[in-house]
Amino acid sequence: MPSMDNNGHGTHVTSIAAGNGRGSGGRSLGVAPMSDIMVVKAGPVSERGFIKTTQIMMGLSYLLQKAIEYDRPIAINLSFGNNYGSHEGRALLETFIDDISGLWKNVIVVGTGNEGSAGKHTHGVVTDQPVTVEFAISANESNVNLQIWKSYADLMRIFIISPSGIETIVLNNALTRQVVNFGTQTKVLIFYGEPAPYNKAQEIYIEFLPLLGTYVESGIWKIRLEPQDVINGEFDMWLPASEAVGRETRFLNPTFRTTLTIPSTAARAITVGAYNSLLNSVADFSGRGFTRLERMVKPDIVAPGVNIVAAAPGGGYSTRSGTSMATPFVTGASAILMEWGIVRGNDEYLYGEKIKAYLIAGARRNPQTVYPNMNQGYGMLCLEESLQRAAI
After folding, report:
1. Residue-range domains of the chain with CATH
2. pTM (two decimals)
3. What sign has the CA pseudo-torsion 66, 67, 69, 72?
């Protein structure tokens, strides 16, 4: 069904991967300009303006079904992510991506998100002493949620202290919904999760809502974790991604690692961070690895993602930055590798993990830098070298 690109994101991303450069006289070509393009627009969005996980899954499934129908290899670009989940690579969407990556001749390329310097993640360890985490809620926030992820085996008491000094009663580790009012301005909902069939970690989900009025109480909030029976003690906390809350809503002592957005944590996805090609340095906003607990190497590689010129809706060009812009560089590169291997008959098995292996092998690396690392993964995209490695 014909559809309009309302904000230009999809047009820009598609142009980087496979734009024909017609509007620029051939100057602003995409990486794989001769590629055929299929585009799926997810929607309608939820009441809060966000795409549902099931919509992403349906879109991926549709694209793969069409590739099988047309008997064509496919490189799928997913410039999308959010902070909700354990970041271990085991949530529903990540598992789905890993599963369908084993079907047909495909690669799925996902950006790490723009949360690297956003202050929306923190990490800590509870041993025999309580740990207090401070975070700011900025003015005019109508809804803020916070996730705590920890080992289900660890028992901890949780206290919440408001900016005005109101402290909760001790919250019990029960698999129930609890509601606490902080004065007359804020209501806090707490949900204790249980392990899932695909994830043994525990989530404690905390949502801050207005009680009387329009906005949550702004200022410095605190969460204190008090040990009861702790075996491992590690915990991670995430606030919503930057698109969902104000810039000043953040942890006071953030942890910059494991700022990957989901589903870039999927094991079989090709995960892409962003670097500044003029400065030859990783962009500060680029989501960083590794994954939680098992420390799976993510990103796999980085690609240009700062001040990228590409097509805009309705004609003309615009300049944008983000890992959304870096991802289609790798998607286009993957398409060229698949065209060389599968379409031209040089390697009929050049898809999936094999594409990832050649991209990693061909990546440019600084001799003074240790690889893989949390910022760049295995290095910077270099399609020429990857093609040479594939041709050996």
Report:
1. 9-116+260-391 (3.40.50.200), 121-251 (2.60.120.1290)
2. 0.93
3. positive
